[in-house]
Structure formats: structure tokens, C-alpha cells
Design a protein that fits this description.
The longest helix has 34 residues, at 268-301. This protein has helices spanning 2-10, 14-45, 49-52, 67-73, 78-108, 115-127, 132-141, 159-169, 174-182, 187-198, 200-216, 219-224, 234-252, 268-301. The radius of gyration is 25 Å and the shape is flat. By secondary structure, the protein is mainly alpha-helical. One of its GO terms (cellular component) is plasma membrane.
């Protein structure tokens, strides 16, 4: 085997080696371009806000401090808002993924007479919708305003996720599903015991999409629950904090976490960088555990033979 590998390497032409080198250089450049904004945000968030005004902060803080994070977490609503964000992310992801998988399994069955019509009806909603005002009126008529479920129910069905899951299910061997039916299993039993376990890669992929959306969403809070502080989310509280910081700077100078004049400046740039790190940290910690499923799910769910 070692001799074979050696022969393969020996047969590489000069053009192949140049291409490999150029590919490595390009991928390293792409990695640096991708990581630099986040590293820069982290450096600014860990640097003294007064010192950051001078500029020149790139990948390493010049004056280390935790004051920016203390300012953010000193806000009283942050802890409760984080709990609401976590709750909507977990519940919304689980419920949406399960419902999308059921719909995808249904329209993937060749014996479902209306599969083409239902698929077309779903796809059309990706290009056309009622608009902001009709959606607001619908939510109000359903009595979902001022309710936690306004974060869950409107986003239960994601058409893109359904298409991806359906493409994956259609590639499953039909013999496995037929054997389950021969053993006496109904459609729901086949779905729960056969389809779901085999579809874990694509379900992990769509779950990550849904979780990122739920975690980052704040506009629905602004529209439907802005008057209810007990239903506020982390992203919405961070957005309000940034607005207050901008108003404080333009109005009466820098403010501290208690609303009084601050000894050290807390600038909008420092707050924005800190907010970015706080908001993205949970997703960054979860992603490595789902990465292999993410790559496999996108590969298998996006190609149909």
C-alpha cells in the first residue's frame, strides 16, 4: 500500500502540484477572511472602550477589560430574556423539525395522489406571501399576541426544510419501507421507527437552520410582544441596549449600566462587538457537534439520482 501511494505521488505532474499549492493558498486566504471579522469583534469587546476609540484594534486587545461584558450582563432583563430565547429555540426547533419531517415523508410517497399539487402549493409560498400587515392581522385574530406561542406556531412549517428532507427520504431504499409494512407497520409506525432514525443527518442539518433562525430572531418580538417584558428575547434586549447606547452617546455622553454618567466610556462600537460575541457564542458551541451531520445531510439531501 505504501508503495502504491508512493507511485501515485510520484506520478503527480508539475501542473497538479501547482494546482494543489494554489488551492491550499486560496483556502488559507478564505479561512482568514472568514475568521477575521469574528476575531476582530472579540478583540474590540475585550478592549477598553475609551482606548478602542483610537482605532488600531485588529486581532488582539490593546487594553484588556471585562467592562463591556459587565455592562451587557448588568442589564436586569438579560437573564430572563436568555431563558426565553433558549426556550423558543429548543421548542421551536424540535416541533418544526418533526412537523417538517412528517410533511416531507407524506409528499415523498409515490402513492400520495396530491403530492405534486401540495408540493407546488408549498413552493409558491417561498416566492409569494401576504405581506407584513396581513400577517400581523392574522396573528392578532388568532389571539397569539402577548403569547409565547407566537414564536413557535407561525414558523412550524419551513418549506425549504421540507424540500431538503423530502429529497433525502426519496433516496432511502424502498425495500426497507416495504419490509416495515409487510411486518404490519402502518405509515406512522414506518415514519417513526424507520424513516426518522435513517434521516438523522438531514434532520440535524434542518435543525441547525431552524435553531439559528429562532435564536437570532427579534423582529417578531418587536411586532407582537414588545409590550410584554416577560416575553422579551435576548436578541431584542441586545437591540434595545444598542439603541440606548447610541442615544446616550449622542445625547448626554456615555452612560453606565445603571443609567448614570459612566467613569469609563461605553461606546456603541464596544457594545455592538460584545453583543455579537454573546449572541453567537451558543451557536458556535453547538455547531461542532452537528458539523458531520450538517455536511452529510446537505450532500445527501441535495442530490437526487
Amino acid at each position: 500500500m505504501a508503495k502504491t501511494n508512493s507511485n501515485i505521488k510520484y506520478r503527480l505532474s508539475t501542473g497538479d502540484r501547482v494546482f494543489d499549492l494554489a488551492n491550499y493558498v486560496f483556502m488559507c486566504f478564505l479561512m482568514i477572511v472568514t475568521l477575521y471579522p469574528f476575531v476582530n469583534m472579540f478583540a474590540v469587546s475585550m478592549n477598553d472602550a475609551m482606548d478602542s476609540i483610537k482605532g488600531g484594534i485588529y486581532v488582539w486587545p490593546r487594553v484588556w477589560t471585562w467592562e463591556n461584558y459587565e455592562y451587557v450582563f448588568k442589564q436586569g432583563a438579560i437573564v430572563h430574556a436568555t431563558f426565553i430565547s433558549a426556550a423558543r429555540t429548543i421548542l421551536g426547533t424540535v416541533i418544526s423539525t418533526f412537523c417538517c419531517a412528517m410533511v416531507a415523508y407524506t409528499i415523498s410517497r409515490p402513492d400520495f395522489v396530491l403530492r405534486k399539487f401540495v408540493t407546488l402549493a408549498f413552493v409558491l409560498t417561498m416566492y409569494f406571501n401576504g405581506g407584513l400587515i396581513p400577517n400581523f392581522l392574522l396573528i392578532r385574530e388568532l389571539n397569539l399576541m402577548g403569547s409565547f406561542w407566537v414564536y413557535i406556531i407561525p414558523g412550524i412549517i419551513g418549506v425549504f426544510n421540507i424540500i431538503v428532507i423530502r429529497s433525502f427520504i426519496e433516496q432511502l431504499p424502498e425495500g426497507i419501507l416495504e419490509s416495515a409494512r409487510i411486518d404490519g407497520g402502518g405509515e406512522f409506525t414506518t415514519f417513526m421507527r424507520i424513516v426518522l432514525p435513517l434521516s438523522m443527518p438531514v434532520l440535524a442539518t434542518t435543525s441547525l437552520f431552524t435553531a439559528v433562525y429562532q435564536w437570532n430572531s427579534w423582529f417578531d418580538v418587536f411586532l407582537y410582544n414588545s409590550r410584554y417584558l416577560d416575553l422579551s428575547t435576548l436578541q431584542y434586549e441586545l437591540m434595545k441596549m444598542l439603541q440606548n447606547s447610541n442615544a446616550s452617546i449622542s445625547g448626554s455622553g456615555s452612560m453606565d449600566g445603571s443609567g448614570g454618567a459612566a467613569t469609563n466610556f461605553v461606546t456603541p462600537t464596544a457594545i455592538r462587538s460584545t453583543m455579537t460575541i454573546v449572541a453567537s457564542a451558543p451557536i458556535i458551541m453547538i455547531y461542532p457537534f452537528l458539523q458531520r451531520y450538517f455536511v452529510k445531510g446537505m450532500t445527501l439531501g441535495g442530490v437526487k439520482e
